[in-house]
Amino acid sequence: MDTAQVLIVDDDPMLLQALSQTIALRMSMVEVKAVSSAREALDLLQEHTYGAVVSDIKMPGMDGLALLAQLQEQYAKVPVLLITGHSDHQLAIRALRGGAYDYILKPIDRDDFIAALHRALHTHQLQQQIEEQQRALERYALSLERLVDQRTRELAAANAARETLLRELIDGLRSPLASLQELAQEVDRDLPQGARVKRVLDDLARLQQSIRQMEAAVSEVKSSLNTHTFA
Question: I want to staple 62 with a disulfide (CB 3.0 to 4.6 A). Which of 1, 15, 38, 177 is the partner?
């Protein structure tokens, strides 16, 4: 587990010191910040990110339940562990219903405390990993959407160019085709015998020229289409 920050809140300096020392001895990858009031805790949370908050319920001024309510409103993803006495079961139930991750009974068992804090920190780390993966997926989805839009525009442009070339080909073939039709009609006409051979040869030359024009137009279209074809 990466280094995590834990915030402890209690108006009892002896308990603050004991919990801080326990964490230092048992959890080497955890740094602790201890404060004596809920107000100080809220001020620190505005400046730093904590993997978990441990707070006593019974404190003067803003108590642990009021602090929990503030944390749920502003820092809902930070796990909160509340400390309560053995006889305060109703407070423990209120804490859980208010959104506390867990509660710790006094007198505090160090093993239970460390286990609960470890679970809270691990849960917070997993939540951060999930959020980072979600952000990565969102970035990938956005990138993919942009790529699809770009390829769609490119395909639309290619199709437009292809249609333009086809129209130009059709327009270019109209004149040669008209010439061919005219030649065919003239060949079928009843010409004088003496002029028939020369007229047919002239018509054949014109026919060959028209065919060459059509072949050139077709080659140009093929070349242009290959240039605008996408894989």
Answer: 38
Residue type at 25 in one-letter notation: L
What b/e string do you get for 152-182 counting C-beta neighbours within 10 Å, with b at 16 or more? eeeeeeeeeeeeebeeebeebbeebeebbee
8 A C-beta contact, residue 104 and residue 84: yes
**Regions of the chain with pLDDT less than 50:** 229-231
CA 105, 84, 14 angle in degrees (round to 5)?
Answer: 85
Report CA 155 to chain centroid distance, whole Å. Answer: 25
Burial 40-75 (b: 16+ CB within 10 A, else e): ebbebbeeeebbbbbbbbbbeebbbbebbeebeeeb
Please name the fold of domain 4-108: Rossmann fold (3.40.50)
Write out the two tokens for 111. 């093993």
Half-sphere exposure (CA, 13 Å, Cβ side) for 49? 7
Residue 211: which of 174, 185, 170, 177 has the closest Cα?
A: 177
Quote the Cα angle for 33-36-39, to 5°: 95
Query: What's residue 150's pLDDT?
Result: 86
* CATH class of the domain at 141-227: mainly alpha
The tokens 């997993």 sit on which residue? 126
Query: What SS3 state is found at 33?
Result: strand
The count of other CB atoms within 10 Å of the CB of residue 6 is 22
CA distances from 182 to 25, 208, 218 (A): 105, 14, 22
Provide the residue ranges of all domains of the chain, joining segments of one domain with +.
Answer: 4-108, 141-227
